[in-house]
Amino acid sequence: MNEKVNKNPLALDDKNYTIEEFALLIRKKFGVNDNLPNEILVSAFIEKYPMYSCKIKKDSNQGGCSCC
Q1: DSSP, residue by residue, 38-50
Q2: Burial, 52: exposed, middle or buried (Cβ in 10 Å; 0-12, 13-18, 19+)?
Q3: In this structure, are residues 9 and 55 in contact, taking their beta carbons and an 8 Å threshold?
């Protein structure tokens, strides 16, 4: 169980999120109330926490992540 927590410290559901859904989760979790566009917020978050890149729904123009 401890290993599962380490791979998902935000305790996100085991599903893929749209950019909008993921940005909303970040804003709620961390109390972020800013004017950053969703794409930039999610991109910055994924850059810092790349383990979450698999949680974002990819469209056909985006490449896959390195972890899956």
Answers
A1: HHHHHHHHHHH-G
A2: buried
A3: no
Give this prediction's pTM.
0.73
Give pLDDT tens digits for 3-33: 554 567 677 888 899 999 999 999 988 887 7
Two tokens, residue 5: 């927590």
Rounded Cα–Cα distance for residues 55 and 53 (Å): 5
Helix axes 38-48, 19-30, angle to 10 degrees: 70
pLDDT band at 1 (very low <50, low <70, confident <90, very high): very low
